[in-house]
Structure formats: C-alpha cells, structure tokens
Amino acid sequence: MNIAFFLTPKKDVVFLKTTMTIRKALDVIDAHSFNEMPVINSEGEYWGTLSQGDILHFIRGNPDPRRLLRFRIKDLQPRMLIKPVRINCNIEDLIMVSIGQNFVPVIDDNDKFIGIIKRSAIITYCYQRLFKKSMIEA
C-alpha cells in the first residue's frame, strides 16, 4: 500500500517556520489547540517537531518575556526527535514510527516537507483491515 493514501498535504497542515518568534509560535499553537506541530525551514525542509513543552522549557530557562519576541524557533532545541518518513516508505515502517507520536511528518526525495500522516488515519486503516468493516458499519 502506498502511504500517500494517508497523507494530509502540506497545504492542509498547520505548521511553524523556523524564522517565527517564540511568541508567534505560542500564538499559533494556542489558536489551533495543538500540543505539537511540525516546523519547516526557509527551504521548505522539515526541521523538527516543536511541542508546548519545548517552549515552556525554553521560557523557564529564559524568564525575561522580551526574549520571546527576539528568539526564533530555530534557537530552540526540541527535546524529542521526531523523524520524518519518505513518501515511498512502506506501511509496516509507517505503523512502527507512528506508535509513539500523534503524527508522522512526510518528506519527498528532495527532503521537502510535503505533509503529515495522522496516527488516527493509520489506526482507522488497521481497524478496517482487521475487522473488514467500514467505519459506517462499526
């Protein structure tokens, strides 16, 4: 199975940019009620995944609120390494990667971020295959 079937394309994904200030990142995360979001650099490559915890950890170490306006996401160090998968990844590897995270970032052959695969989409697929049902029947 081609994992592109599960892909939420970049145009439909809320993501952060490495050039954003920490304050702007907090605003975006808060506005969308996400705990973590993918981060893209200026070349369109996946940089990492930033969590609210990463930002709080940074704030705790830098209590001056004016610094939030000055520092950029690229100045942070995410505490958890979320590796992307390539679009040609097989379904078994995708399932293994998705076990410990809410979404899996997907990149193309040029390392450009092209979207995410949500763990819920993978679980739905596995459920349907396991029980041979559509979600309507369930």
User: Roughly how many Å is the radius of gyration?
Assistant: 17 Å
Average residue-wise pLDDT = 89
Tell me about the biggest sheet?
A: 4 strands, mixed
Structure classification: alpha/beta
Detailed description of the structure:
The chain has helices spanning 22-32, 52-61, 67-70, 91-98, 119-131; strands at 8-9, 16-17, 36-40, 46-51, 85-86, 103-107, 113-118. The protein has one domain: CBS-domain. By secondary structure, the protein is α/β, with parallel strands linked by helices. The strands form two sheets. It has a four-stranded mixed β-sheet with strand order 1-7-6-5. It has a three-stranded mixed β-sheet with strand order 2-3-4. Helices cover 33% and strands 20% of the residues. The model has no long low-confidence stretch (mean pLDDT 89). Strand 2 (16-17), helix 1 and strand 3 (36-40) form a beta-alpha-beta unit. The chain is elongated, with a radius of gyration of 17 Å.
